């Protein structure tokens, strides 16, 4: 689906560029954007390598176990049946910790590691488990106590008070994450009931 969206955007840009006689600007934008994309990719790759190394160090130093112990009540509540001592739970806890601090680049490799472990527990099935769905919600609609990344972008843009968005960030992220959790629980319950009805008919 995404490939068709990108194709459509490119086609529309070329069409309007040709129609308005601004193909030179379109060509310039393509070249400039290509360079910026490479620079962004290298920047993200560096951040992912850094935080992957930090995760490895934290794992070797047993810090992941300490963080998992701190979040164990939360893990038991939202991920029923998942042991707080498992590698998946530890990766989830580290991802949540990074998101709480607003460190998006740090949360990305941790989220990939957590989803990989959850996929292993799910038998690498093509159908996502309830735990995987819940984690996607937590990672996407994350609660940010300190919106570090956004504040940094605001500071670079010349904002006099880059952290003044904190109350709005707390309200928005709290509302989104609560809505997401409730929807996952509701849909999981509906799927369980549907499965039970089908099993009973069989």
From the helix content, strand content and strand pairing, which structural class follows?
mainly alpha
Oligomer: single chain
> What percent of residues adopt helix (DSSP H or I)?
over 70%
Largest sheet: none
Mean pLDDT: 78
Total number of strands:
0
The SSE string, one letter per element, is HHHHHHHH
Radius of gyration of CA atoms, rounded to a whole number: 21 Å
Strand proportion, as a percent range, falls in under 5%
Q: Can you count the helices? A: 8
Low-confidence stretches: 195-202
Shape: globular
| Termini separation | 36 Å
Task: Explain the overall architecture.
The chain is mainly alpha-helical. The chain is globular and about 60 Å long. It starts with a helix and ends with a helix.
Quickly list its features.
202 residues, 79% helix, disordered C terminus, mainly alpha, 0% strand
Question: Gist?
Answer:
The chain has 202 residues and is mostly helical. 79% of the residues lie in helices and 0% in strands. It has helices spanning 2-19, 23-60, 63-78, 87-100, 104-121, 130-140, 148-156, 166-201.
